[in-house]
Amino acid sequence: MTPGRWIVPLLPCLAGCIDYRVVTPPATPIPALSASPNSVALGKVCGGEPETVTLTNAGTGRATISDIRVDGMGWTVGALPALPFVLQTLTDDPDAHLDIPLNAAAGVATLRVLSDAAEVDVPLRASDNVHPTAYILSPYDSQVIGEGDDLSLTGVISDGDDDLSTLSVEWRGEYGFVASGVADADGRVETDWPPADRGSGPQLVEIVVADPCGDEGEATQYFCQDGPFAVDVLNDEAWRFDGGAGWDGSELTLVDGPDATGAGFDLFSLFDGDVLHVQFEFLIGEEGGAGAVPEGFSFTVLDPSRLTTYIGGDRCGLGYGGGADCTSGPALPGWSVEFDTVPGEDDCAVGDHVAVVVDGVITAPAGCATIPLLGVWRTGEITVEPGQISLTVDGATVLNAPIASGQDFEGFAGFTAATNDEGGSVRLRNVTVIDSTCVR
């Protein structure tokens, strides 16, 4: 039998006996993350403002989120659930979502969500708040105000992204709050500051403007008001010291040792030569009276228009005086109250005494009084009124003396002292000057 005879009959059987079927493999679950909103663009932010981006999974399989972060400036991510986090599909759970809390601050950044699906990136952008500004028109810099004068506080405020009506304005003085204000359409703020509510002396006034974000702008102006005001002069940094004088932070030492002359003047402040009150504590020699006795010291208000030096005569000149054989050096122009402890032929009294001297002429005092001075810390108070000087020691008035005309200058306040060949020391502390007139 030939091969062809077997093959032909079999073909119909093969075609009829085989069952053809197509088998479809199962579909692979695929997550599909999306963010809402898909970008965040804000105007100005105050900083730390909350925003939320919500993730959902519109795919057919769960999404495993491995990392959520912000790359860029300003923006940060708030508290999140523990990662990795599995996000169900909306088909399985219509409420399935993940809220991502953000803190919006000025800057450009990108929120990145990393998962086993595609990475989701959400652009973020926010603008910074524009700070308000303020300027003071009245009082002007270094303006002198009379004690009873009217004073109008005037300023101008502005803000680049807030309406002026939303800004709060406050005036502040040396002792705190003065007044609040509201700007007009041009940004001008004005309020009266009554004399009864103001203090005297050099001072600062400040205007503070705040916007709805709480950002502040401010301006400060210096001015001075006439009337009594205390000056703790030893805290000023503009003291000039000559000879053996020096300041250790608590005491002013004028002299300490034999044949010494010292002087210290406050060159920061100018004081009225004819209206003044000064108080200070002083120690001449050693406590208890032992040791060498210095010549003494002076409180001097020095006329700057006539001065040639800040330290004058030695020995009986007490660092300020001249015109006698017992001293050398020039006399200081102005007036002095001297505290003299060593008797001499040119003294106005025997033993410890005080005297008022004009222009350093120690041989012609305007007034003189005997009083114990040595070895004890004492308190001196000098009160000057036009034509009159009075001195109290330890609360008792010891001297009232007339003072010549022409002492209405603005002068430097300070102290001078001297010793002889025996030595000794003069120390002062707690010096307070009460002035009444601002420098014009």
Could you tell me the mean pLDDT? Answer: 90
Low-confidence stretches: 1-15
State the secondary-structure class.
mainly beta
**Care to count the β-strands?**
33
Q: What would you say about this model in short?
A:
It is built from 1 helix and 33 strands. It is mainly beta and 440 residues long. The longest helix is centred in the N-terminal third of the chain and has 14 residues, at 4-17.
What does this structure look like?
With 440 residues, the chain is mostly beta strands. It has one helix and 33 strands. The chain has one helix at 4-17, and strands at residues 33-36, 40-45, 49-57, 63-72, 76-77, 85-87, 98-104, 107-115, 120-128, 133-138, 143-145, 152-158, 168-173, 176-181, 188-192, 201-210, 216-225, 229-231, 239-243, 246-247, 252-256, 261-266, 271-272, 276-284, 296-302, 334-340, 353-358, 367-370, 378-385, 388-393, 396-402, 410-418, 425-435. Strands 18, 20, 21, 24, 29, 30, 31 and 33 form an eight-stranded antiparallel β-sheet that branches. A hairpin with a 2-residue loop joins β30 and β31. The radius of gyration is 44 Å and the shape is elongated. The model is unreliable at 1-15 (pLDDT under 50).
